[in-house]
Design a protein that fits this description.
This protein is an alpha+beta fold. It has 21 helices and 25 strands. β19 (663-664) and β20 (668-669) form a beta hairpin. The radius of gyration is 35 Å and the shape is elongated.
Length: 758
């Protein structure tokens, strides 16, 4: 077996090993066809309680926090959860609520507690911050049926309000009422009247000061018949009794569609409007890119075989002129390679995860499955990061390959983990249940150091082993001087303009995603999200290509970093949108929650920056290689040096032969390249910008400096190529007062002129 085949199988084998090793961490994946739980009449149906959360703060609290005084079972048992579920703050535990299939319960007194003054103050604060409880029965969250504000269509709003506040919200008239009586309705579906499946969980909370005010008894409905609510007293102890009702309702909803009421799509027309608007933008950008490619690639042959109008020649002049510098390695090439490698890792993670979600392999019934899948695929695609980074770094001519591999494996993951680790201390300081346990932290570290980093090293090994990427044109030894750029093509303005359209393609969907995160809603419109992701990829690619083309036409060949930053700038707008969302939609007013919110938003924006930056960079890289691979290359007669210094028609380049070498033009020193085969004279190249100035501005200072140099020796040959070269050359020759006997040979736009000084 050839070595390349062996290496390929070794690489695939190691990746498969990583997949199998990660399978145990992803045991909660939902696959279509998983059998539902069938309950029999009289069978116990467990009810689990989760952490309390609020739309006004990002600090969840454990359900059994001592100050909350909630009733507890004899033994609190935790429910096994996925890694993603733990990271998102889920803490499912057993409860004292006893639910028996088809058995109705009314006014079941759970326990009696006494709230001390400090406990009452703590709970009062949570009520004021709109905290709600999260319960779960058979994988379904407890909810309250509410009508859609616009369509009046009923849907299930997840969460049970902890309490309510009085109409007067100012101190000392403010009052907080605790919900301590719960009316639980379990909806079930049956086919054979022998087994039953839970298809809905509804809970209505009430604040009741005394169970005597509730319609209890055999025929009672268990609902309050008065307005005597349970007040939390500030100045004295507050005795509270917790109670609940349970009733069962048959439903036509089948088990396979039981999530439909939970997965309510708010404002579906906005989704469609956003999608259509984004498609129009993409079609417009696609048309512009297609015109550029057709003009640059398919019309070049005809353009080179016939002299066109001067305006048309000047229009396409700039990008071809910089062919000798366009593939010059950028500054900080190692960092760019590392970021592109990390972005490729994120891109594959997002693509595969969305593919699984669209196909239905991720279910909301498996809590945290989406985040778990994302994390697992990110770890497994560490090999892609190493391979991509190594390939680009080798192309740039980098030699510090060890540093490149280490940075690829640890820079981006280390930054994200460092932010996450720091924010976790704020959760610990606030005594929030959202703080990630030590065991989970250890699991994350193990996934990073034992799976992701080794796979990154393996990918880098194969990347460096591959042959170096060769460019279609060679790079000049002397960098070309870049002319002054118009304001809109300077670095910061062009980058900021380029990031607007990619952000515009996703900001509507971003609103729904953020609402699902901060308002405890389930986001499950992955079909829309997948289409938006495709539009984002196209928009990033096309915007970056257009901006790169404009820069090249303006003779600015520094496109490497700008390609990454142009599409990556959309992350800046994502972060600014997060700031706007914080100010207009959220009511967070405590410092820890503010720090946590902006920490999470910054992390999300950073990852989005790497994702979009890599998309734009990759598309631009393919585009530049394509257009410069299409231009014709002709060698100068007698020249045996680097053909990239002289090739390309339509370029204002000069070749001077003479007995001496001197500084010419803009102060760029000449360079002896090779000997002329016939005259055995040194060849001298001067700066193409200088040649352009000689042809277009024959009265400027450059012409006068050239005039002195031309008078210092005997010049035998001058060659210029470019649109309308002959006319401009006559003006130049007249200005420097040369007398010559020209012999003109025309090859399309190429004009060679032989002359002699008197």
């Amino acid at each position: 077996m050839p070595p390349s085949s062996v290496s390929r199988w070794v690489f695939l084998g190691l990746t498969l090993f990583g997949v199998l090793w990660q399978a145990q961490l992803a045991s909660s994946f939902y696959l279509p066809g998983v059998a539902p739980h069938d309950y029999k009449g009289g069978e116990r149906v467990p009810l689990y309680v989760n952490a309390l959360s609020s739309p006004d703060t990002v600090l969840p609290y454990d359900y059994y926090t001592p100050s909350l005084k909630f009733c507890q079972p004899k033994e609190i048992q935790g429910k096994s959860e996925s890694l993603g579920s733990i990271l998102f703050g889920d803490r499912l535990k057993s409860s004292p609520y006893e639910l028996t299939m088809l058995q109705k319960e009314t006014c079941v007194e759970l326990c009696s507690v006494v709230y001390k003054e400090e406990d009452a103050a703590f709970v009062e604060g949570l009520v004021q911050q709109r905290y709600f409880m999260n319960w779960e029965v058979d994988g379904l969250p407890a909810a309250k049926e509410e009508p859609d504000p616009k369509t009046q269509e009923p849907f299930y709003e997840i969460g049970i309000q902890l309490g309510s506040v009085s109409a007067e919200t100012k101190w000392p008239y403010f009052k907080a009422y605790l919900n301590n009586h719960y009316d639980i309705t379990i909806k079930y579906h049956t086919e054979d009247q022998k087994t039953y499946r839970v298809v809905g969980v509804l809970v209505t909370p009430y604040s009741v000061a005394n169970l005597k005010d509730v319609n209890c008894g055999k025929d009672g409905d268990g609902l309050p018949n008065g307005n005597n609510r349970q007040l939390l007293n500030r100045g004295k102890d507050t005795p509270v009794k917790f109670s609940y009702n349970v009733k069962w309702e048959s439903s036509r909803i089948q088990w396979g569609t039981r999530w439909d009421n939970y997965l309510h799509v708010f404002d579906p027309k906005i989704h469609w409007f956003s999608l259509v608007n984004s498609v129009v933008i993409v079609l417009f950008l696609t048309g512009m890119v297609a015109m550029i490619l057709l003009r640059a690639l398919h019309k070049d042959i005809a353009r080179y075989n016939a002299v066109e109008a001067q305006e048309d020649a000047q229009e396409d002049f700039g990008w071809k002129l910089v062919h000798g510098d366009v593939f010059r390695p950028p500054r900080w090439s190692m960092l760019l390679a590392v970021l592109v490698g990390s972005g490729a890792q994120l891109f594959l993670m997002a693509s595969v995860t969305l593919g699984f979600a669209v196909l239905g392999f991720l279910s909301p019934s498996s809590r945290g499955s989406l985040s778990t899948v994302m994390l697992v695929f990110y770890v497994l695609f560490g090999s892609v990061a190493g391979y991509t980074s190594a390939r680009y770094y080798k192309m740039f001519g980098g030699e510090k390959w060890k540093r490149n591999v280490v940075l690829t494996a640890f820079l981006v993951p280390g930054t994200v983990f460092g932010i996450f680790f720091t924010l976790n201390f704020f959760l610990i300081g606030a005594k929030s249940s959202g703080a990630v346990p030590f065991g989970t932290m250890f699991a994350l570290m193990a996934m990073w150091f034992l799976v992701s980093a080794p796979l990154c090293f393996v990918g880098a090994y194969f990347g460096f082993k591959k042959p170096k990427l060769e460019h279609p044109v060679r790079t000049n030894q002397i960098p070309r001087q870049i002319p002054e750029q118009p304001f809109y093509l300077r670095a910061i303005p062009s980058i900021l303009m380029g990031g607007i359209l990619p952000f515009g393609a996703i900001f509507i969907e971003l609103y729904f995603i953020m609402s699902s995160i901060w308002f405890n809603r389930i986001y499950y419109v992955f079909g829309f999200l997948f289409l938006v992701f495709l539009i984002l990829v196209l928009t990033c690619s096309e915007v970056t290509i257009l901006m790169c083309y404009f820069h090249l036409c303006s003779e600015d060949y520094r496109w490497w970093w700008r390609a990454f930053l142009t599409s990556g700038a959309s992350a800046l707008y994502v972060f600014l949108y997060g700031v706007l969302y914080y100010c207009t939609r959220l009511e967070i007013n405590d410092v820890p929650s503010t720090i946590l919110y902006f920490g999470y938003t910054f992390t999300m924006s950073l990852l989005f920056f790497l994702l979009t930056g890599t998309i734009g960079f990759t598309a631009c890289f393919k585009f530049v290689r394509k257009i410069y691979g299409s231009i014709k290359v002709r060698s100068v007669p007698g020249h045996h040096g680097d053909p990239g210094l002289f090739d390309g028609l339509g370029l204002f380049e000069g070749l001077l032969t003479g007995p001496d070498v001197a500084d010419v033009g803009l102060g760029v020193p000449g360079e002896i390249l090779s000997g002329d085969a016939e005259a055995n004279l040194p060849l001298l190249e001067f700066n193409p910008v200088f040649a352009h100035q000689l042809l277009t501005c024959p009265t400027n200072a450059s012409s006068h400096s050239a005039q002195k140099w031309l008078a210092s020796g005997t010049i035998t040959t001058v060659m210029f190529s470019g649109g309308n070269s002959s006319t401009n050359f006559w003006k130049f020759a007249s200005d420097v007062k040369l007398s010559f006997a020209p012999v003109i040979k025309s090859f399309g736009m190429l004009v060679e002129m032989d002359f002699k000084l008197p």
